Structures are given as C-alpha cells and as structure tokens.
Amino acid sequence: MLTFLAFIFFIIPYSSGEEWIIHVYTGTESFSGTDSNIFLRLFNSKYGYTNEYKLTHENVLIGKNIFPLKNLFEYGEHNRFRIFTDELGSIEKILVRRDDFLSIQSDWLLDRIVIENNHDRIKFTFKCDCWLRKERPYITIPVLSDLHSIDKNKSSKNNQTILIVLIVSIAAIICISFSFRECYRHNQNRHFSSVQTSFESSIIDRYHLQRPEQSTLQILNETDSSSKHNRHPLQSDDERRVTVAQSVAITSTDEPPAYQDLFPN
C-alpha cells in the first residue's frame, strides 16, 4: 500500500515533468558571499511560471571531497541544485531573491545562473553580475538570447556537418561499389574473350593437324573402292570377245569398229 501511494505521489508527478540542474555562480568581489536563503522562480511565456524553489542543502548536489554542511553561496563558489518542474520546454527569464535571514553578511553578489535540462542537456544562461542588497533583494533576469542562439546555431551546424559527411560517405560507397562491379564485369568479358579465342585457335589447329591423315585415309579408301569396283574376274577369250562385242554394240557409231577394239590382245 505504501509503495502504491509513493508511486502515485512521487513517481507519477516526476515522470510527467522535467528535471533541471541549477548552476549558481557567486561573484569574486570582497564580501560577495551571503548567508541568506536564495529563492528561484522560472518563467515561460507558454506555460506561465513555476513555484518558488528554495535553494538549500535539501536539493543541493554535493560533489566529491565537499563537506555536506558547508555554507552555500560563498565567495567565488559554484553551487549546483536539482529541482523538478512541470513541462516548461524553454525558459525565458528567472526571478531570484534573497531573504533577511541574518542582517550581517546578507548582501550577495550574483554573477550568473545557468539552468540545464537534465534530459536533453540544453542550457539557458542568465547573466546578472549585480548585488542583491536590502533595498533591492530580488531581480528578474532574462535569458541570454545571443548565447542561446549561438549554441543553437552551433548544434544546427554540427547536424548539417554530420548530414553532409553521411551523404558524402554514402555517395563514395556507391561509387566504389559501382567501380568494383564494372571492373569485375570487364575482367569477366576479357576472360571470356580469351577463352573463346583460345578455344577457336585450338579447334583450328586440331583441324589442320588431323586434315592430312584424313585426306590420306580418304584417298586410300577411295583407291581401294575404285579398285574393287573395276576389278573383274578372269575371263576366257571367247567371253572377253562377247563382252567387247556387246559394249561395241551398245556404243556403236557410224564408223566400223577397229581391229584393236574387236581383238584387243
């Protein structure tokens, strides 16, 4: 039950608001420090203003090697505090005041206050360099718009530089990959051409080397077949005469056949 109540009253309000780190710088003139209590209020034109926060040991951020009960807002010191507010976004001005806790050493020389968003680390600087005395124990300080715009311009320039570097890197990677692909394609074409040329030359050389053997074999085969075709069995003289007579009768002309044709032997 206690955990549920703590969740409702503490965790939910802080999760819906913003966390700020307050950097307070005290001046360096004589008797610049104060023992008075310091109060701070933040203003925003859109969301109005916050409650007044007391900067004390309850919300101070103690660094290393610093005694917890050390006096705050002493000569030349830098004190840090943590506060939680509703959503503000940006801070346009602040109201700083002190009380008369002690009449002695109550005046305070405030140099500047820097308010930092603990989420996105955006800083708002409020330059004072003035005394908070008894006759004027409070002061309203506007934000240094020039400094804020300078930081904003620096961040925008850094973003532009990062974007340009990213674009150039992507373009370089694309060009390099395209060049590698073209070189690979060119080498593949050269290799294919060389393989094709060597294959054609080997075919031609093999053809020229095998052509004489094939010609000789063909001539021998043709000679053998022609000899077989023209070869006749042994014939007698009478059969030879009949054959010659038949051939002469087939190829007869007007002139009588010669004696050699009738009797070749």
From TrEMBL:
It comes from the Eukaryota. The chain crosses the membrane at residues 162-180. The keyword Magnesium does not apply. Residues 18-146 form the PLAT domain. Keywords: Membrane, Signal, Transmembrane, Transmembrane helix. Residues 1-17 form the signal peptide. Residues 221-241 are annotated as: Disordered. Gene3D superfamilies: Catalase core domain. This is PLAT domain-containing protein.
